[in-house]
Specification:
single chain, alpha+beta, Immunoglobulin-like, eight-stranded mixed sheet, five-stranded mixed sheet, 27 helices, 22% strand, binds tryptophan, binds zinc ion
């Protein structure tokens, strides 16, 4: 294992040249590609050598102002081309390189996916296509000519507008694209292949006619309507909320089967993982439809937050990702339910980001250094980054926040900016009418540099005579790797008192800036204190440490007017129940009270939009519980989940059965209508099936062949934990029905791999050899290997067999695809929290991985796991 050198934020210097224009010519042949580029360069610091990046490129020729360079005029090694002597005046460098996209399995740069050639340049993939500085602060105007065989590549796409089409000889053709907006290389994209086009139109608020084109493989055309409709909704929302319009005449989206991430916002040519495009109610679940809508929106919103305003360097990644996640969260909230979306986002934050913040790969939203930038496309950069922006909005209020956004766009349009630029613009906009900011901006900025999840400890005293509740708060952030000492942060803490009849008095926003703060809330005099509703809407991404008696949680669950806090109260009780069961010390009083409260909620359901109820009933995630247990015993937690699911099925059977009757009317409604009823149906099936209700098992089995993917998958999820014939039958039916649709079959692979069975490891090995398993598709790898890590009993087997298996698989994936492998290596990040016996076998697996020849990406993660 060799560790790469670190890149440091403190070392940032602008590039020594400007690169106002690039002309690229991409010549595609059946076994190689030749790329020539003409870079118009202007020295900013004459005398400095020209250094460009290039990986896996064979240089055919180099010339400056048409004079060919000789081999002694330059050096090319370790991915760097250095030309020591270049003109002190503007000049043109022409480069010609040969590359082989057909044997590129990394899915970075230019690569083949099926019969298609496609690109992925973020973060540093363009250097695998052509010699270039490949840094986000070098913005150029691009012209791209693509030439290829007409029959194998009838479609030739790049960024901007198609300005010319030509025939070349008998069987070749070329298309030239011009992008009028200067952009960095990571936003370059190219697609060549035989694709089917679905076309639609959108007229912007100011009357621009935009042609919307979706490009998919033949046969996938019927599954594009949802993506197209989502795109139009996104365009409309950004106009009406941010006053931001689309700026070109065409917008292209291409669906690609082999893709490392979800999707990519290349200017006017988004490239999507096909699982985030192809969908309808029969082929995708409600949750997947919502996810597709939000990712289409995310990539579209990047056109402003990312493309028109880009990042100065990769330390600023959250400038575009945090902001764009925040924007897509608001979009989904506006189109569906604000409360349910907030609950979904917080559940996700707690189970992924909090977990990252508590482990060896913890890092700030703005890291100070990295080895491989691909490792920093994390939930901290994305989701915690979005929380920081949400806190700014909470602190300033929506109007002043929007004023700040206007200043940001107007001040930085067409440039590469930093997160400081962003925060300053928001502050300047918010204070433009003369109002003070209301909090310490420098302290707020600490959020960007300080890793770890703050712990907010709360104490209170009740004064029965005056009816005042005095609340004392204390904040502390635990140390994270490389950051022992932490400073206090600005925390917006929304609070209210809740009595039997609901909220008492107004909600208060406490802006906590120091380690300690205190606030007095006014309630009704009396002996029983009101319940404290704190961190309403999850107003800051922190852990709350507050002793809340059972009665108080029940009161919040019953009468808090903040749906997030109602949900949170139920979650708290469920966590107590599950943890106590995992420790073999069940809490009968809490269990009975929670069951009763849930029963009341279920009985009160009148057939309306059931999404809030479904959210309220959902169990907390495994990762949240692991954070509360020391040492972590995954097998005991898994057992607790199963036993509690079964117990709920037994205790709630009467109301769950009526719930099933009530929700049946929702089964056939078209998304988003009916999704609440379907979610409730799936929950009831799961709990009742766990409790052994055979009629429910039969009903679920029938749904696998039915018209709703949501119900089919809900049914499978209910049957999966049962080691019974119905499960095998249901899985076989699903397989037969969908075996020709890779996107859907991946769900089957994931379920097969996660199903508990005595020979689970063997089954997973078979899946990797399955004729329909595609080892080059990250979706399939994640399905099988991710499914296996969710198979708690098998992955966490105390003999270490599951860990060793994963280590082997990660090393194998790493030799083909470092980005996907290094993400997978994070499955070992909990190591230090297990007991000695489990730690020992997991360490052995990590060491086994460390002993293999690893990519820089995976080496960086493994190094963090072992220090
Ligand atoms: N910028 C992409 C987004 O919208 C992320 C992304 C897509 C990416 N593909 C990638 C990042 C490959 C690194 C490598 O979030
Ligand atoms: Zn993004």
């Amino acid at each position: 294992m060799t560790a790469a050198a670190s890149i440091r934020l403190a070392d940032y210097t602008p590039w020594a040249f400007e690169l106002p224009a690039i002309a690229l010519n991409v010549n595609i042949h059946s076994d190689h590609v030749v790329v020539t580029s003409r870079l118009s360069l202007e020295p900013r610091r004459p005398g400095e050598p020209l250094v460009l990046c290039g990986i896996d490129l064979a240089i055919e020729s180099l010339a400056i102002d048409q004079t060919p360079l000789q081999s002694e005029d330059y050096s090319f090694n370790d991915g760097r081309l250095t030309i020591p002597d270049v003109p002190g005046q503007p000049f043109v460098l022409e480069t010609c390189c040969r590359l082989d996209p057909y044997s590129n399995s990394s899915l970075e740069g230019l690569y083949a996916s099926g019969g298609l050639l496609s690109t992925q340049c973020e973060a540093e993939g363009f250097r695998r296509i052509s010699l270039h500085p490949d840094r986000p602060d070098v913005l150029s105007r691009w012209q791209v000519r693509i030439e290829a065989n007409r029959s194998s590549c009838p479609v030739l796409l790049s960024n901007g507008n198609a300005v010319r089409e030509e025939s070349v000889g008998a069987d070749r053709h070329a298309v030239t694209w011009d992008d009028p907006f200067p952009k960095p290389s990571y936003l370059f994209a190219l697609v060549a292949g035989d694709l089917r086009e679905i076309r639609d139109h959108y007229t912007t608020a100011s009357g621009r006619q935009v042609t919307l084109r979706l490009h998919v493989e033949e046969g996938d055309e019927p599954f594009t309507a949802h993506a197209m409709a989502s795109l139009k909704r996104s365009m409309q929302w950004d106009e009406s909320v941010y006053n931001l319009e689309y700026d070109l005449d065409e917008y292209n989206i291409v669906a690609v089967r082999h893709f490392n991430m979800g999707a990519m916002e290349n200017k006017s040519l988004n490239i999507f993982n096909s699982k985030l495009v192809l969908a309808d109610a029969e082929t995708a679940t409600d949750a997947e439809l919502e996810r597709i809508e939000s990712v289409i929106a995310h990539e579209y919103f990047h056109n402003w937050s990312g493309n028109r305003i880009t990042c100065r360097d990769w330390f600023q990644l959250s400038l575009k990702e945090g902001l764009t996640v925040f924007r897509d969260q608001c979009f989904t909230a506006a189109l569906h339910s604000e409360a349910v979306k907030r609950i979904e986002d917080v559940a996700m934050l707690r189970n992924t980001q909090f977990r990252e913040d508590a482990g060896p790969t913890a890092h700030p939203v703005k890291p100070a250094e990295y080895q491989a930038i691909d490792n920093f496309y994390t939930t901290t950069i994305y989701e915690k980054g979005a929380e920081l922006i949400r806190m700014l909005r909470t602190l300033l209020g929506p109007e002043r926040f929007m004023k700040g956004m206007e200043v940001y766009v107007q001040r930085f349009d067409g440039t590469a900016a930093t997160t400081e630029d962003f925060v300053q613009a928001i502050a300047d906009g918010a204070t433009s009418q003369g109002e003070p900011l209301g909090f310490d901006l420098d302290r707020f900025k600490r959020w960007y540099h300080q890793a770890g999840t703050p712990e907010l400890s709360i104490d209170r005293q009740w004064n029965p005579e005056s009816g005042e509740l005095t609340v004392d708060l204390h904040q502390a952030t635990p140390p994270t790797p490389g950051q022992a000492d932490k400073q206090p942060l600005v925390l917006p803490v929304a609070m209210a008192l809740v009595g039997k009849q609901g909220r008492v008095g107004e909600e208060q926003l406490l802006v906590m800036e120091a380690e300690r703060a205190s606030i007095t809330l006014q309630g009704q005099p009396g002996d029983t204190p009101p319940a404290l509703s704190v961190l309403r809407r999850f107003s800051a991404p922190v852990h709350v440490r507050l002793e809340q008696p059972l009665e108080e949680c029940l009161q919040l669950l019953a009468s808090d007017d903040d749906p997030f806090c109602r949900w949170d109260a139920a979650q708290r009780l469920a966590r107590q129940v599950l943890l106590a069961r995992a420790e073999n010390q069940p809490k009968p009083a809490v269990e009975a009270a929670l069951i009763q409260a849930l029963d009341q909620r279920i009985c009160a359901y009148d057939g309306g939009d059931g999404m809030d109820l479904a959210a309220l009933l959902a169990l907390p995630g495994m990762a949240e519980l692991e954070a509360l247990q020391s040492p972590v015993d995954p097998l005991a937690l898994d057992q607790a989940f199963r036993a509690w699911t079964q117990e709920m099925g037994v205790q709630l059977q009467t109301s769950l059965r009526s719930l099933l009757e009530l929700t049946r009317a929702d089964w056939t409604l078209a998304w988003p209508a009916g999704q609440g009823g379907r979610a409730l149906t799936a929950l009831a099936w799961r709990w009742l099936a766990a409790a052994g209700h055979t009629t429910v098992q039969a009903e679920a089995l029938a749904a696998v062949s039915g018209p709703s993917m949501t119900l089919a998958r809900g049914a499978l999820r209910a049957l999966l934990p049962l080691e019974r014939a119905e499960r095998e039958q249901a899985m076989a039916l699903f397989y037969e029905r969908w075996k020709d649709k890779p996107v859907i079959l991946d769900a089957w692979f994931a379920m097969e791999a996660s199903a508990p069975r005595s020979n689970a490891l063997e089954r997973v090995q078979q899946l990797l050899e399955h004729p329909r398993f595609d080892p080059l598709a990250p979706n399939s790898l994640r399905a099988v290997l991710g499914g296996f890590t969710a198979n708690v009993q098998a992955f966490h087997a105390i003999d270490g067999s599951g860990y060793r298996f994963m280590a082997e698989q990660i090393a194998a994936v790493d030799s083909r695809n470092p980005i996907t492998a290094s993400r997978m290596a994070k499955v070992f990040s909990r190591c230090a929290s297990y007991g000695p016996e489990r730690q020992k076998v997991m360490r052995e697996a990590i060491d086994q991985l460390a002993s293999k020849p690893l990519s820089a990406n995976t080496a960086e993660v493994v190094q963090l796991l072992t220090t």
